Amino acid sequence: MDLTRRSVLKTLASAAAAPAVIRSSRRPGDKPNLLVLWTDQQRADTMAAYGNHRYRVPALNQLAEESVVFERCYVTQPVCTPSRSSVMTGLWPHRSGCVRNNIALPAEIKTLPELLGDSAYRTAYMGKWHLGDELFAQHGFQHWVSIEDIYNRYFSPGRDRNTRSSYHHFLLSLGYKPDGNNQFSRQFATTLPVEHSKPSFLAQEAVKFILENRREPWILYVNTLEPHTPFSSALNDLHTEEEAPLPPNYPGIPEGPEPEWYRRRREQFARNRGEGFDLSTPEGWKRMHRNYAGLCALVDQAFARILWALEVSGQAENTIVVHTSDHGEMMGAHSLMAKSVMYEEAIRVPLLLRAPFRLPRPHRVPHPVSQIDLVPTLLELMGARDPGLDGRSLLGYLRGERRPADVYVEWTADPSEGGPNARAVVTPDGWKLVLHDTDACLLFDRNRDPLELRNLYGAAETKELRRRIVEWQRRVGDRLQLPT
Predict the structure, then answer these.
(1) Bridge partners, residue 352, by sequence
(2) What percent of the chain has pLDDT over 90?
(3) Across residues 341-346, what is the average pLDDT?
(4) Closest to 21 (Cα-Cα) out of 400, 316, 255
(5) By CB count within 10 A, which of 138, 282, 341, 397 is most buried?
(6) C-alpha count within 13 angstroms, C-beta hemisphere, residue 4
(7) ∠ CA(132), CA(124), CA(317), 5° rounding?
């Protein structure tokens, strides 16, 4: 269905209608709630706090104005499962074992609700999980709302592979018919109106959970698939080309040697019409950008409804709100799409943290931080001790107790795809070194070269930065052998 810009905005306004005002009987100072709103494949520069004033994401822009904004947040590994494992557990992927996609998080590895260990909390996980047994409640979460039906071949022995997601049953209740193999494809979901999309379904379920549990403390994770591929939705034409422009480093082939792995990916995207777009032309990239911006807006309208439920139920002042993503999206930078590389667009993500009862707002942290520190931060805000995780609480930066430090990023190659393993360091003073074990390495001076167009590997800084990576490997028990 074609939508005019006016009709789209009307649909968004209708979808964000407020629930009836219902006040919580809990008071500020009670055990805090935790709401984690996270996305899949969202670049940092998709909202005003990170320099993008064009995308129509008013809810996220407003949240950022009320939050601590971490300007340079990096993932532990730029692909779904490994990154998610760190966000949920506070462990490096090589420590949890989740080093590649579709590896289940081991039962003995604890997520935040399990680490907190407080039976007073009601706990819920809603949306994409991608850490094994996708459709089944686990790891300390009592209530489970699922949206993805493509991971059943990875279920543990004994799990029923004919089980379907909560979203599947939602669509059946609306009269839709599965488009193949008794399930709804991801592509099918992109053809639906806003109110039947995955983000809107998750908003509906999250609002219900927040209102029903307003008299007791709760933990709620809501993870949208969007703006992950497929890059299409009812909001494809919400943004003009001027509002969703190509990145300044398109086509952006860097000077100096580039990893063969990166070159092969670039050629593959252009040859295979990545996600149905002709990526051999600027026009194909422009169409992708507009669709991606629409997906960000689709997510935003859902998050608006969830945040509104917090306000109208009187719980906002006693709720920790986090927004982040599991990795970024190249979206044409260096003529690449997706993730799985060490360029800034793939490894840097938004990180907003709002806790009115504890944190200053607004506030900005300009130096690099890592998602490995997120679980320790949340445990501290919730009054729990750090059990010895790999990261450290980010609150130390806000109290002046932590000095800016190096951030590290892993990459473990999938044997089915080929490519090298990698380890990277990002320094507070603007250097980034990427060491590949079997491919060309990268060194960027991001102060002088923020678009990463000139590979300086072999310059004088290389030796010291390599030493830091090796020292970090020693500290965290990482045994990958890197080039000397």
Answers:
(1) 69, 323
(2) 89
(3) 98
(4) 316
(5) 341
(6) 3
(7) 140
Q: What is the mean pLDDT of residues 196-206?
A: 98
Of the candidates 88, 29, 58, 42, the residue with the CA atom closest to the CA atom of residue 307: 58
Instruction: Name the token pair of 459.
Output: 């310059």
Q: Which value, to the nearest 10 degrees, does the dihedral of the CA atoms of residues 426, 52, 450, 468 take? A: 0
Query: Using CA atoms, how far apart are residues 316 and 309, in angstroms rounded to an integer?
Result: 9
354 and 321 Cβ atoms separated by less than 8 Å: yes
For helices 58-65 and 282-312, the axis angle rounded to 10 degrees is 60
3-state SS class at 368 = strand
CATH of 5-19+30-403, one of 3.10.290.10, 3.40.720.10, 3.20.20.70, 3.40.1170.60: 3.40.720.10
Q: Is the dihedral of CA 392, 394, 395, 401 positive or negative?
A: positive
Domain locations in the chain as residue ranges: 5-19+30-403
Counts for the chain of helices (H) and strands (E), in that order: 14, 13
- Do residues 313 and 24 lie in contact, with contact meaning Cβ atoms separated by under 8 Å? yes
Question: For residue 28, what pLDDT is reported?
Answer: 63
Helix 198-212 × helix 282-312 angle, to 10°: 10
- The rounded distance, in Å, linking the Cα atoms of 206 and 33 is 13
Q: For the ranges 245-259, 261-275, 304-318, 330-344, which has the lowest average pLDDT?
A: 261-275
Q: Does residue 61 contact residue 349 with C-beta atoms inside 8 Å?
A: no
The residue type of 71 is E
- When the pLDDT of each residue in the chain is averaged and rounded to a whole number, the result is 94
Question: Is residue 9 within a helix (H) or strand (E), and if so which, with residue range?
Answer: helix 5-15
- Residue 123 near residue 218 (C-beta atoms within 8 A): yes
Q: Where are the extended beta strands (E) located within 238-285?
A: none
Quick one: which of 180, 130, 138, 128 has its CA closest to 154? 130
Helix (H) or strand (E) holding 58: helix 58-65
Which pLDDT tens digit goes with each residue over 108-126? 999 999 999 999 999 999 9
Burial class (CB in 10 A: 0-12, 13-18, 19+), 162: exposed
> 409 and 342 in contact (C-beta within 8 Å)?
yes
- State how far the Cα of 234 lies from the Cα of 67, in Å rounded to an integer: 30
CA neighbor of 349 nearest in space, from 363, 368, 362 = 368
pLDDT digits over 31-42, tens only? 999 999 999 999
The token pair that represents 125 in the structure block: 């996980």
pLDDT band (50, 70, 90) for residue 20 = low
